[in-house]
């Protein structure tokens, strides 16, 4: 590899690093596991937290991501404090969660 090619690679890496730093943000996750209580209606409630104004006990989380798989619901957001409040709310209602990570 010639010195000029090495310089191009280094410049490309720096540009990519600057772009990733600019467009990326921290993301926190929480998994709600399927248990005896069942979680059939939970995705609808979570979507309402994202799309509407939240509820009396839970805040609105506009960037809440929701993915349903057969044994759990995975949710994520950049708002860590709201996810911690949601986790506490779920655990008080006997849902099994993995905690915010």
Task: Name the descriptors.
101 residues, single chain, four-stranded antiparallel sheet, 3 helices, alpha+beta, elongated
What is this structure's SSE topology?
Layout: H1 3-23, E1 28-33, H2 42-51, E2 65-69, E3 72-77, H3 80-92, E4 96-97
Antiparallel strand pairs: 1-3, 1-4, 2-3
Overall mean pLDDT: 84
By DSSP (H or I, 4+ residues per run), the number of helices equals 3
Calculate the terminal CA-CA distance, rounded to whole Å.
42 Å
Shape: elongated
- State the helicity in percent bands: 40-55%
Spatial arrangement of strands, main beta sheet: 2-3-1-4
Characterize the quaternary organization of these chains: single chain
Total domains, how many?
A: 1
Question: Could you tell me the radius of gyration in angstroms?
Answer: 20 Å
Strand content: 15-25%
The largest sheet, given as strand count, sense and whether it forms a barrel, is:
4 strands, antiparallel
Output the helix-strand order. HEHEEHE
Main structural class: alpha+beta
**Number of strand elements:** 4
Low-confidence regions: none
Give a description of the structure.
The chain is α+β, with helices and mostly antiparallel strands. The protein has one domain. Helix content is 44%, strand content 19%. The chain contains three helices and four strands. The longest helix is centred in the first third of the chain and has 21 residues, at 3-23.
Question: Can you describe this structure in just a few lines?
Answer:
With 101 residues, this protein is an alpha+beta fold.
């Amino acid at each position: 590899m010639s010195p000029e090619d090495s310089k191009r690679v280094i410049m490309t890496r720096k540009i990519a690093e600057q772009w990733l730093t600019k467009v990326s943000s921290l993301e926190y996750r929480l998994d709600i596991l399927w248990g005896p209580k069942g979680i059939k209606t939970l995705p609808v409630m979570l979507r309402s937290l994202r799309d509407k104004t939240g509820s009396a006990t839970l805040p609105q989380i506009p960037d809440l991501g929701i993915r349903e798989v057969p044994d759990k619901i995975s949710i994520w957001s950049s708002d860590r404090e709201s996810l911690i409040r949601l986790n506490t709310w779920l655990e008080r209602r006997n849902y099994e969660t993995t905690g915010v990570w």
